[in-house]
Amino acid sequence: MGFGDLKSAAGLRVLNDFLADKSYIEGYVPSQADIAVFEAITAPPPADLLHALRWYNHIKSYEKQKASLPGIKKALGKYGPADVEDTTGAATDSKDDDDIDLFGSDDEEESEEAKKLREERLAQYESKKSKKPAVVAKSSILLDVKPWDDETDMAKLEECVRSIQADGLVWGSSKLVPVGYGIKKLQIQCVVEDDKVGTDMLEERITAFEDYVQSMDVAAFNKI
């Protein structure tokens, strides 16, 4: 019983004929019998041995699960046609150091392929990322700007505030809000880019108009 020498063309032809009406070496599901025969083959069968090649490619797809396949791996001579002499000899009892671990080799090859594919995908991602416009973080700020007294020219005060220009700063609507004793404060909206304009900078620039401005407070601060 056996396939003969599966490293030879004759052995592969025996395997091909054996698989002409079978999907697996034993039974109806992949098992350790398939793994035992698979590992005895040093290279994929040629295209003209279509049954053997079909089986080989199918079993190769189980390389990650080979240890969990059912059955117990037996000597290679225990599988195959009954009328073929087992020529594997003692080599079936102990694996020769020179035998090729097809699964191991495939793992290494696929590892290199996976590494190459990962590097290509990372390069594509970085390329797309560099072309994609960055999201600009912005905030909407409502400022309360208080004058010194009720005689302060509020129109001039607002003109001074709006004269402040900076990259990432856009002034919005405004209104005068009574605070008592005839005094009104300027309440003004602005939108800022967080990386470019902060409330400390606004306070420093606004309170610099000391002839009109007593103080500045942040009434509301919302991320956009």
From TrEMBL:
Residues 95-112 have a biased composition (Acidic residues). Coiled coil: none annotated. Residues 83-114 are annotated as: Disordered. Keywords: Elongation factor, Protein biosynthesis. Residues 138-224 form the Translation elongation factor EF1B beta/delta subunit guanine nucleotide exchange domain. CDD domains: EF1B, GST_C_eEF1b_like. Residues 102-129 form the Elongation factor 1 beta central acidic region eukaryote domain. GO terms for cellular component: cytosol; eukaryotic translation elongation factor 1 complex. Catalytic subunit of the guanine nucleotide exchange factor (GEF) (eEF1B subcomplex) of the eukaryotic elongation factor 1 complex (eEF1). Stimulates the exchange of GDP for GTP on elongation factor 1A (eEF1A), probably by displacing GDP from the nucleotide binding pocket in eEF1A. EF-1 is composed of 4 subunits: alpha, beta (alpha subunit of the eEF1B subcomplex), delta (beta subunit of the eEF1B subcomplex), and gamma (gamma subunit of the eEF1B subcomplex). Interacts with elongation factor EEF1A1. This is Elongation factor 1-beta. It comes from Formicarius rufipectus.
